[in-house]
Write a structure and sequence with these properties.
Elements: H1 4-14, E1 22-24, E2 36-37, E3 43-48, E4 55-61, E5 65-73, E6 82-88, E7 95-99, E8 108-114, E9 117-125, E10 131-140, E11 148-150, E12 165-166, E13 172-177, E14 182-189, E15 193-201, E16 211-216, E17 222-226, E18 236-241, E19 244-252, E20 259-267, E21 274-275, E22 291-292, E23 299-303, E24 308-315, E25 319-327, E26 340-345, E27 351-355, E28 364-370, E29 373-381, E30 388-396, E31 401-404, E32 418-421, E33 431-438, E34 445-451, E35 465-466, E36 476-477, E37 483-484, E38 487-488, E39 495-501, E40 511-519, E41 528-530, E42 534-537
Parallel strand pairs: 1-3, 2-4, 11-13, 12-14, 21-23, 22-24
Antiparallel strand pairs: 3-10, 4-9, 5-8, 5-10, 6-7, 6-9, 13-20, 14-19, 15-18, 15-20, 16-17, 16-19, 23-30, 24-29, 25-28, 25-30, 26-27, 26-29, 31-42, 32-33, 33-39, 34-37, 34-38, 34-40, 35-36, 40-41, 40-42
Amino acid sequence: MHNSTLAVLAFGLLAPCLLAQVTNEVEPNDSPAQATAVGCGLHVEGIVNYAGDLDWYSFTMANAGRVQLVAGTGRDSVLTDTVMELHANNATLDLIAVNDDEDRSWMSAISAWLPAGNYVVMVRGYGNDTGPYSLDLQCDPNGAPDVRVAEGAEPNGPLGVGTPTPIALGALGEGSLGTGDSDWWSFVVTAPTAVRIETGRGLSGSTSNDTILYLRDATGAQLEFDDDDAPGAWSLITATLQPGAYFADVQGYGGANAGTYTLRLDQLDASVTLAESPEPNGDPLISGSPSVFGCGVPGLGEITAGDSDWWQFQLTADTFVDLTVWGGEYTATGLPIQNSVLNLYDTSSTLLATDNDDYYDRLSRLSIWLPAGNYYAEVVGSNATQAGTYLVRLTCNDSALYHNFAGGCVGSNQLAPRWNVRDWELPMLGTTMVADLGNCPGSTLVIPFAGFSRTLASNQLPLPYSLQALGAPGCMIEVDPLITGLMITDAQGRAVSAFAIPMALGLSGIEFSQQALVLDAAANTLGWTVSNAGTGLITARR
């Protein structure tokens, strides 16, 4: 449980917001002139009704700030692949940003710093994809402006022929490729740093749609090459670099794919790293001695053919963790790994979760809620011959996450009421988080409740608390019912809980839990059942 100061702050800010409003798109909204008006912090439910259906939304930024737009899954037969565009709402509809596949799925997300003004967003299905989707709009007045760097005068590459364009970590480069062109961008790292270099669609003019990307050292020698690892036919390189000067060399595929493009250069992690322990550092049940690392300090290792590296970490409390594997260092014995598998185990070496290609197609990532305890993360190649260096990072309570627990008690329909938070629906500051409740009787009363502990209620009653003595066997109150509301299910026994989270930095890092009481007179003597519980962590970003 968080300390009393945080709990009081969270209660004061969140209590009035338990049941917020959800906005639906209003058809026709097939053009900017017909756009459905939405506002910062709102959750919007929309439907791409047919192939080629364009859904436009308009919003106003009263003050300059960073906007984050997330197109997530809908309620029923969901749309699974979207494309989203952000435009200035002016006579020329200036394109600000476009996204097809966000780095974790085929859905779309845009983050951009905007001056005060009017804007429009377009959402469509990729290709012929149709179905329901959701749109969340977060406006952060504390967000920092984008740093944009225009490509320098031609020629700007190769080394010795042109002058490369300097770009800093965190900046967005904007360039244009001609036939046979090669654009070089120069950057410097001053400490061991994991970087991500990614090309994308240009923001003006006729855009390229297929690039190749080289990472080069200070002499111009090739360190790494990529064609299509980013979504679409764009290029992506992740690597851990030692201090020094480097070049990103962007070219059109086949030397002929001309047009504008963007180049994003991001720092992925801190400069402090831990080296893997001496081999064998694999499964401790078969004589391995795993390396030890912790939250916020990544580990550096190398996989040889058939090798398996295990990393041990300890959590002292219930924690949302994110485990990510990136390309490692360039060494005398190996290059950054190109295709990794990440496995998570408990202390008995029981597999809890696994991922192969969730992070940019060929690297690995797991986001998961874990109770306090000891765990092992295994990094291995995707096959017996895959080898290379890698960086594995463990972050804890760093981004908004939500976990649905099993549980609840069976009602008269022989089903237990069930919370379900959609894949992309997360408790971010300045947004409305939507949770779907199902498996309930039709048109019945529901009392959703939320609190900041699953071990002790505000009246000091230990949790979970059994309702068996009151006539509801198997029903457990698992969440402190500090904040309550009222809902009515529809004819199918479903309800939607919309939880508005203010843009209040003091809420970042707050963990909360939800559950619901469901009126069901035929279920038991008490006449009520309870749902499973869900726990969320509030932060400013996903």
